[in-house]
Amino acid sequence: MAEITFFTNPMSRGQIARWALHEAGADYEAVIVDWNDKSDAFLAANPMGKVPTIIHHAAGGDRIVSEAAAICAYLAEIRPGADLLPHEDEKADYYRWLFFAAGPVEQAVTSRALKFEPAPEQQVMVGFGSYDRTMDTLEHHLAANRFVCGDRFTMADVYVGSHVDWGLHFGTFPKRDAFVAYAERCRARDAYRAGKAIDNTLIEEMSK
Questions:
Q1: In this structure, are residues 5 and 27 in contact, taking their beta carbons and an 8 Å threshold?
Q2: Domain ranges, residue 196
Q3: What is the CATH number of the domain that holds 133?
Q4: Assign residue 67 a region: left if phi > 0, alpha if psi is -120 to 50, beta otherwise?
Q5: Rounded CA gap, 184 and 193, in Å?
Q6: How many domains are contained in the chain?
Q7: Residue segments in the chain with a per-residue pLDDT below the cut of 50
Q8: pLDDT digits (tens, 9 = 90+) for 130-176
Q9: Are 138 and 105 in contact (CB under 8 A)?
């Protein structure tokens, strides 16, 4: 049995977790989830029926992790040799921007896609304030840094980088220079290319 069972679908946020698994050098077995026929094993692991979800078959028993950001952080913790955890002076940026992407960025992009734009008086009620403010804030950081924590790639870049990568591809992110340059640096990673190749092949096969 592989160390990790990975429930995913190539046309989902599972692509984030696959990239993270490859960056961590994890031993995993992928289980493709059919949207219309979710297995009992999958629903037992995650009653929400959402991917990605992983089961870490640890020595002390199975450990289940869902939510792409949490999976990224967990994999960095259990594979410290991959050097994806933040150094002491990088922790503030690591946690700040990992959760910024999981919170304001995710909310801002989804809300705009669903055609919900909070009015000025509503912005205080929503975690992202406004789409433009969220994009401006992330752009400001990435314009001044090669990666989330400065010059060194960490697991936070898998999650933040996935949002920027997808956003540019699907048009939910503005094509600003800082975003384009950052996405290109992330796309140059061997683990990104390996994971993307697997998912692209799966998508092609499922589309036949």
A1: no
A2: 4-82+192-206
A3: 1.20.1050.10
A4: left
A5: 12
A6: 2
A7: none
A8: 999 999 999 999 999 999 999 999 999 999 999 999 999 999 999 99
A9: yes
